[in-house]
Specification:
The chain is α/β, with parallel strands linked by helices. It has 9 helices and 14 strands. A hairpin with a 2-residue loop joins strand 7 and strand 8. Bound molecules: flavin mononucleotide and adenosine-5'-diphosphate (ADP). It holds the Pfam family Flavokinase.
Length: 321
């Protein structure tokens, strides 16, 4: 996939079929859209193009209402790459961009990005003038030689509702990992730099890498999780358990993300670790003392291993098909 960062002088070659959105999470509903994009691209011999923003528009337009995000820009681009989309244009979402009316925005797409066909949902709205809707876009399109067609509604549902980024955010806040997996078509994951903590973990026999993820990234519900942990960009992936919480046993702290990797004994400070959330084991608890916590951690380890073994077996079954 060709990734292009928009600038005012941009003049792309070739004619495109495009769709526009944040696509936070690149969930199954989004991928259904990209399939339609690919079909149209083949049918009309156009370049399949996703137009997205470098940040969530709400972070500029109304920061108080901007939700924590399922994916960073890097994660979104990587996931988009895997969909087979040919081109992705990333628009820096500035105040100026936010001020563009839908018609001006369409003109930009037509003149600079070569968009000949725009695919949009009936209820999708873009541009400063939120009053404009699908029939207006069709009319504007006619004036600038751009076809505008409606996307088929999302056919992937969870509890009879179409999958959406906000639904996945709610499910993560509830710790409902199975449903999250269903909506995303994969496990939720996050990456963080390993920073130093209070040096208690090593003393109780469970060293934990304290992760510092992107500040916009959504954290799943507080509690203890079975995770796969990958060290660095292409380091090993190891079974692990993770706590998201406040460590009430040791007096409480601001939210920390701590991961203990099984069968590992090395220095992770300064490295990045990516965790893939496979199962939620329990809520965080306050224990009477460190040895009571330690006993629980031993049980967590065996519970986590059971969940991760089942996950590995399920993967093998899928891959072996
Ligand atoms: C899998 C796991 C589960 C944990 N569960 C709890 C818990 O229920 N209650 C709690 O107070 N701390 C819990 N902790 C956090 C430990 O208190 C924490 O790892 C310890 O304080 C070490 O902190 P440090 O890395 O800053 O030294 C858990 C840690 C892990 C890795
Ligand atoms: N199995 C392991 N899982 C996680 N971290 C480990 C492991 N073995 C060694 N480490 C190292 O130990 C550090 C954590 O030790 P800990 O005493 O919990 O200190 P801190 O409070 O700074 O996190 C990690 O950042 C990592 O560098």
């Amino acid at each position: 996939m060709e990734i292009l960062i928009y600038d005012k002088a941009m003049q792309l070659e070739g004619l495109a079929v495009a769709t526009i959105g944040v696509f936070d999470g690149v969930h199954r509903g989004h991928r259904f859209v990209f399939e339609q994009l690919a079909d149209k691209a083949r049918e009309r011999k156009l370049i399949s193009t996703v137009i997205t923003f470098d940040r969530h528009p709400l972070s500029v337009v109304c920061p108080d209402k901007c939700p924590p995000l399922l994916t960073t820009l890097d994660e979104r681009l990587q996931l988009l790459c895997a969909t087979g989309v040919q081109r992705c244009v990333v628009l820096p979402f500035t105040e100026e961009m936010a001020g563009l009316a839908a018609c001006d925005f369409m003109l930009l797409m037509r003149q600079q990005l070569g968009v000949k066909l725009l695919l949009t949902g009936y209820d999708n709205r873009f541009g400063h003038d939120r009053s404009a809707g699908f029939s207006d876009y069709v009319r504007y399109g006619q004036e600038m030689d751009m076809d505008v067609e409606a996307l088929e509604p999302c056919n992937i549902t969870e509890e009879d509702c179409p999958v959406s980024s906000s639904m996945v955010r709610r499910l993560l806040a509830d710790g409902a990992l199975d449903k999250v997996h269903h909506c995303l078509g994969r496990d939720y994951s996050l990456e963080g730099q390993v920073v130093s903590g209070e040096q208690i973990g090593m003393k109780i026999g469970y060293p934990t890498a304290n992760l510092s993820p992107d500040t916009h990234k959504l954290l799943p519900k507080a509690g203890v999780y079975a995770v796969w942990a990958t060290i660095g960009v292409d380091g090993p992936t190891l079974p692990a358990m993770m706590n998201i919480g406040h460590c009430p046993t040791f007096g409480g702290r601001p939210t920390t993300l701590e991961v203990h990797l099984f069968d590992y004994n090395g220095n992770l400070y300064g490295q990045t670790v990516r965790v893939r959330f496979v199962g939620r084991l329990r809520d965080e608890q306050r224990f009477a003392d460190a040895s009571a916590l330690k006993a629980q951690l031993a049980k967590d380890q065996s519970d986590a291993l059971q969940v991760l073994r089942a996950d590995a077996e399920a993967q093998e079954t899928v891959c072996g098909k």
